[in-house]
Amino acid sequence: MSIGSIFGIIISSIFINNIIFAKFLGCCPFMGVSKKIDASLGMGMAVTFVITIASGVTWLVYWFILEPMGLAYLQTIAFILIIASLVQFVEMAIQKTSPSLYKALGVFLPLITTNCAVLGVAIINIQANYNFIETLINGFSVAVGFSLALILLAGIRERIEYSAIPKAFQGIPIAFLTASLLAMAFMGFSGMKI
Predict the structure, then answer these.
(1) Where are its TM segments located (predicted)?
(2) What angle (nearest 5°) sits at the alpha carbon of residue 153, between those of residues 193 and 17?
(3) What is the pTM of this model?
(4) Phi, psi values for residue 38, rounded to 5°
(5) Cα–chain-centroid distance for residue 186?
(6) Which of 16, 54, 131, 185 could form a disulfide with 12 if both were Cys (CB 3.0 to 4.6 A apart)?
(7) Averages of pLDDT over each 10 residues, the chain, 194 residues
(8) For residue 3, what are the CA distances in angstroms to 6, 10, 114, 135?
């Protein structure tokens, strides 16, 4: 594992194979939470923490329990249980150790359980045959890419809110148009060779 391969994983996960704009995973929270930058920052922090930890835990479970026992076909069910348990554990730990952070994250932590991006990253890490360090780096980088997309859309939506938009495009329609333009902008990174 060289610095070049680590750098490649980071750039690829954030820009080239962005979980939202290239893989289309996590679109529900992307459209639902991206109305305000503050909410997007909170969701981004929570998702970054959970995806990074879930990537490591699911990698360990897959390679040290499921694969050796011939139970690899149960990975999806096992990963869902791990992610749900992890989110509950993280929620309890944050509530106990940092009530202010718990209050700031609010409903975002339970919502992460249903975010398909978390499960998608765990499965992508196994399919890519990453080692443990690469899995953690990829998980963190994917979460940073998710947060970047969320914050970009939130910033644009906040500015659009004060613009004169035709009635037919107000609300979700303009959000979808904006998201599609962002996706097209991120497509420009697809030609990069790392």
Answers:
(1) 6-31, 43-65, 71-90, 102-124, 136-156, 168-189
(2) 25
(3) 0.89
(4) -60, -45
(5) 16
(6) 16
(7) 89 94 89 84 87 96 97 96 90 84 75 88 96 97 96 93 89 92 89 69
(8) 5, 11, 34, 15
